[in-house]
Amino acid sequence: MTSMASTAAIAPLSSSNLQPQGQSKGRIKPAIFIDGEAGTTGLEIRRRVADIAGIEVKSIAPAERKDPGARTSLMREVDLVVLCLPDEAAREAVALIDAMGPAGPKVIDASTAHRVAPGWVYGFPEMDPNQTAAVRAGRRVSNPGCYPTAAIALIRPLVEAGLLPADYPVTINAVSGYSGGGRSMIEAYQAGRAPPFELYGLTFEHKHLPELQQYAKLTRRPIFIPSVGNYRQGMLVSVPLHLDTLPGKPCARDLEAALFKHYAGATLVKVLPSEAAAKDRRLEPEALNGTDMLELRVYASDQHPHACAPRCAPRQPR
After folding, report:
1. Is 312 one of the annotated active-site residues of the chain?
2. Which helix (H) or strand (E) holds 69?
3. Which one of 84, 146, 308, 312 is the catalytic residue?
């Protein structure tokens, strides 16, 4: 049995990535507007941005948050707009920015609205050797989903290495904390009205599936069953594999080698060698909370030709 595990968080924003446009608008500091800053994801992003020197965060008056004219006016004043909105509201916000033409700000969209849309860069820098440069240069960047980040990190290197066929019937199991479910779920858990554990996505239509399939380079739609535990933040994602059904019947070392090669030089993605992973026969999802790290592990059994890959993440904006 082989199992892979990973932990992830968002990479920090850098003021240097925004500086050129900030200067072109006559300011010393580049400016950011978080559209939806009062929500769960917006509050977290504002907290992180507040720690970055050299960035100005602009806010809109609460009474004007749904006023297209007021929002457009503020968007014209900034270099970057971060959208922390429901999907349809995010599409409407992008339409406002598109209407500004070349003078409009860069956009990072935290919703699922544009993750597989043409013209948008998928914001997972370690996914591909060219992805970091694409994210830096992108005018439209979609923030990856929490579960897809884990699954893509584990599956894509195996597909690219020829170890896992693109049409393999992949299954993905996951558990996350309740903070990724938004305000209503957070309130339910904090009030003691929610169960200790629950499965969801049982219609096999989870909104993360399109991006997961596309960027993991899978041609067959995977089976993905997520769950929520009674804790605030943290995530484990596992991808079990029958090694004897794969071409060439690879061993756990082959999977591990493919991951090491893919993430060589990465600073926020760490592949744990099997010797280190073997010491942790139980994984808990809160282990990497408070960090931006992603850990990948491969677990295997000498008795059974199986493999599994879990991933653990400190935050889960959905």
Report:
1. no
2. helix 68-75
3. 146
